[in-house]
TrEMBL record:
Location relative to the cell: Cell membrane
UniProt keywords, alphabetically: Cell membrane, Disulfide bond, Glycoprotein, GPI-anchor, Lipoprotein, Membrane, Signal
Annotated Gene Ontology cellular component terms: plasma membrane; plasmodesma; side of membrane
Ranges of residues in domain X8: 28-106
Pfam families: X8
Protein name: X8 domain-containing protein
Membrane topology: Lipid-anchor; GPI-anchor
């Protein structure tokens, strides 16, 4: 009986690990590239905000206005656009100013 319990425990552990891994697998975010120029970030930010991204929180007085940097504001807008587009291929480019992150940037 001890052998069956051990095998059952191993199988349950494998199923749990597989389930957790599959849940994490699809989590991606679109963030500003650390090597992007100010102009590229500004252009991408303007595009995202005028094409469906929710940019209200990064406007003055918004909940995500601070830190008030182009890098942070662009990352917020890029990810909002990317998420609203269903993470569609090509929705995280912004002329090379963005990149996909697999760890939560928050």
């Amino acid at each position: 009986m001890g052998g069956k319990k051990a095998v059952s425990l191993v199988l349950v552990s494998i199923v749990v690990a597989w389930t957790v891994a599959r849940g994490v697998e699809g989590n991606t975010w679109c963030v500003a590239s650390s090597s992007a120029s100010y102009g590229a970030l500004k252009s991408g930010l303007d595009f995202a905000c005028s094409h469906g991204a929710d940019c209200g929180p990064i406007r003055p007085g918004g909940s995500c206005f601070n830190p008030n940097t182009i890098q942070n504001h662009a990352s917020y807008a890029f990810d909002s656009y990317y998420q609203r587009k269903g993470k569609a291929p090509g929705s995280c480019s912004f002329g090379g100013a963005a990149t996909i992150a697999v760890t939560d940037p928050k």
